[in-house]
């Protein structure tokens, strides 16, 4: 079994296993691409942390202007949003757009906190810890590998069965892969 090889994100410090020992080639490529999109691009740095820092050093009117810019970007229109005596005034249409955007964000099955990349990293770290308990047990390693691949596959296809997981993630046939776990072959 390949030893895990972790790299740290230069922006947020999150660890990423690049060995791919628990994932299929398809998942490995997807993990690599998503890691680059989120971490190498710097998008992983929490926007809310940046806003908190910004809020701590700005006046109420500066905060309003920043919020208004974000609202305009989200709603697509400056509308009649205004700032008076520390209060924000918006049109009913702007409130409706804002509420719709919040509803869509809340309905998202995978939140920013639990991106596929983070789930993959957590599954791989857990797999490392469990496999370390019995490093000579190939059957355990095969089962862990199947669990990691199944977990990542089920994120996208929640109704898939193990056969679909194997077909999507392994070059071997279904009976062979499931036999590794069933029979230790």
Automatic annotation (TrEMBL):
Region (Disordered): 1-25
UniProt superkingdom: Bacteria
Listed name of the protein: Uncharacterized protein
Species of provenance: Promicromonospora aerolata
